[in-house]
Amino acid sequence: MSNFKPEHLNQKLVARNNISYEAQQQLCELYDKLEALLLSSKGELLTRADYDVISDKVTELEFELQRLWGFTQDKEFHKYWLSVGSCSCSKMDNMERLGYGRIINLGCPVHGTPQDS
Length: 117
Ligand SMILES: [Zn+2]
What we know:
Layout: H1 11-16, H2 21-40, H3 48-69, H4 91-96
Helix pairs in contact: 2-3
C-alpha cells in the first residue's frame, strides 16, 4: 500500500533525468518509508540513541533516493536529517549552504552535543 504515487514526483525532474517507471515506483516506496521513519522520530519518549538509529536509516534512504533520481550519492546534499525528531538546527542556513557542510545547533536534541544526564 503505497501512499506516494508516481504523479506526486517532481515531473520536471522525472523527464529531465529520464527516470524509468520502475525507478519511479521504487522512489514512491522510499518516500513512503521515509515518511513513516520521520513520523516515528516524532515520538515523545525517544532517546538520543533512538535518534541516531533513525538518522542512520534516513541517511541510507536518502542515498537510495539520490541513486534512483540519477544524482551523485553525496551526503553533503542530504536534507531530510533536518526533519528527524525535534531537530533545532537551522533549516534555512543549512539549505542555503547545501553541499558545504552541516551547521549543527549544539543544543539540538537530535544532532547537538548530548548532555550528560
Ligand atoms: Zn538538528
